[in-house]
């Protein structure tokens, strides 16, 4: 019995210290794994095979193909600023491009920062500059 006392005492002390440590600590892992933010993706189509998605992508220089589970999505643009989203909607309607707006989770801080920087310039940009800045955003996304 004398040999058991140190073991029981060390277990009790360990439980007390661990209770104090874990009770006062904030182990919120949401900040570590949380996406940076939401964006609006202007989706042109969804396809079961890559070749069909590639055919649609060829029509639009800046479009990117994203594999999402078992489908391939073709995006024309990915934006976060509401004014720029409205301007992009007008641009696509004026050019007779059919699209669907899909909410996308952005997990890369660098890409989110690049979108914000380009969008600041897109608000008051001419049509040609607007398209060029969109091309830059999509090239950044394809690098991701």
Quote the CATH topology. Alpha-Beta Plaits
User: What's the domain count?
Assistant: 1
Give Rg in angstroms. 25 Å
The CATH architecture name reads: 2-Layer Sandwich
Q: What characteristic shape results from the CA principal axes?
A: elongated
In the CATH scheme, the class would be Alpha Beta
Which strand order spans the largest sheet, edge to edge or round the barrel? Answer: 2-3-1-4
Mean of all residue-level pLDDT scores: 86
What is the helix tally?
6
CATH superfamily: Sporulation related repeat
User: Percent of residues in beta strands?
Assistant: 15-25%
What's the helical proportion of residues? 40-55%
Structural class: alpha+beta
Number of strands: 4
How many strands, what sense, and barrel or not for the largest sheet? 4 strands, antiparallel
Polypeptide structure, described:
The chain is α+β, with helices and mostly antiparallel strands and 144 residues long. The chain has a single domain (36-143), classed as 2-Layer Sandwich (Alpha-Beta Plaits), CATH 3.30.70.1070. The chain is built from six helices and four strands. It has helices at residues 4-24, 30-33, 50-59, 82-94, 109-122, 127-143, and strands at 37-47, 64-68, 71-79, 100-106. Strands 2-3-1-4 form a four-stranded antiparallel sheet. α5 packs antiparallel against α6. The longest helix is centred in the first third of the chain and has 21 residues, at 4-24. It is elongated, with a radius of gyration of 25 Å. 20% of the residues are buried.
């Amino acid at each position: 019995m004398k040999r058991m006392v140190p073991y029981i005492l060390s277990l009790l002390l360990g439980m007390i210290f661990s209770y104090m440590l874990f009770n006062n600590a904030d182990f919120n892992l949401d900040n570590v794994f949380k996406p940076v933010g939401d964006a609006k993706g202007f989706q042109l189509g969804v396809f079961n095979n890559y070749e069909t998605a590639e055919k649609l992508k060829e029509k639009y220089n800046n479009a990117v193909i994203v594999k999402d589970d078992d489908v391939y999505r073709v995006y024309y643009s990915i934006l976060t600023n509401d004014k720029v989203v409205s301007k992009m909607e007008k641009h696509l309607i004026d050019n007779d491009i059919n699209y669907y707006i899909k909410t996308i989770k952005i997990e890369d801080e660098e890409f989110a920062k690049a979108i914000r920087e380009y969008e600041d310039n897109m608000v008051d940009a001419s049509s040609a500059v607007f398209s060029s800045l969109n091309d830059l955003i999509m090239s950044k996304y394809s690098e991701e």
